[in-house]
Specification:
Layout: H1 2-19, H2 24-46, E1 61-64, E2 67-70, H3 71-93, H4 95-105, H5 107-112, H6 117-142, H7 153-163, H8 168-189, H9 194-208
Antiparallel strand pairs: 1-2
Length: 222
């Protein structure tokens, strides 16, 4: 229910911002603000207690030679790779994906080419919400459920900044690098201070390389 309310509110806010031709940063601010609003609404109705998922898997560990692997993590990793492959196929190998890329580059030109911009935007929100729902289930299995669990979306934004906004490959690279950096920082400075260093790293990327690792500059030609 909260996901549908968030999606509807985000669509309304996005339409208003698009009609006013607001800067791109406003979309991120509106998303974070609406996320905080939904978190507090959930906390009001369901309290701030911690909840746990039922045990979906009878096998918790898997031994491969000298290595012991977490079986739920393997399942989640496999499903994540499958979802990522399907998303990459849609974006780069279908007409819908071509329309998505065209709309993300230039709304007006895409509209002049006959693309239903509003439908494409709704599709993008649907795909984002669907993938976000899968991620939420995985987080619930790995951790516990609480209203502020959605704050981990900020890590996704940081990974996108590091890898390159608008680049699927960059988002994957940024996510892996962010995970490695976070583990290293937790070992060196502890889990309480590591978010400060991660935020500073994001600021450095924004200042020194705003396009991220895999991002590229696009030069418009008259």
């Amino acid at each position: 229910m909260g996901g549908f309310l968030g999606l509807a509110a985000e669509l309304v806010a996005f339409r208003r911002l698009r009609n006013k031709r607001s800067p791109v940063i406003y979309y991120f601010v509106s998303s974070i603000t609406l996320g905080m609003l939904l978190e507090n609404i959930i906390a009001i109705f369901f309290s701030t207690n911690f909840y746990s998922y039922p045990n979906f898997f009878r096998i918790n560990t898997l031994r491969l030679g000298q290595f012991i692997l977490n079986f739920p993590d393997l399942i989640m990793f496999s499903i994540s790779l499958t979802a990522l492959a399907i998303l990459a196929f849609i974006i780069y190998r279908t007409k819908v994906g071509m329309a998505l890329r065209a709309v993300s580059y230039d709304l007006d030109t895409a509209s002049l080419m006959g693309i239903d911009v509003l439908r494409i935007i709704q599709l993008a929100f649907f795909l984002a919400g669907f993938l976000g729902g899968i991620s939420g289930v995985f987080l619930g299995i790995s951790y516990t459920l609480y209203p502020q669990l959605g704050q981990m979306v900020v890590k996704g934004f940081i990974a996108s900044v590091i890898g390159g906004l608008g680049s699927l490959e960059g988002a994957v690279i940024g996510a892996f690098l962010l995970g490695l950096i976070e583990i290293l920082l937790i070992k060196l400075v502890g889990s309480a201070i590591s978010p400060v260093f991660i935020f500073c790293i994001m600021l450095l990327f924004l200042l020194l390389r705003p396009r991220g690792i895999a991002g590229t500059h696009v030069q418009e030609k008259a």
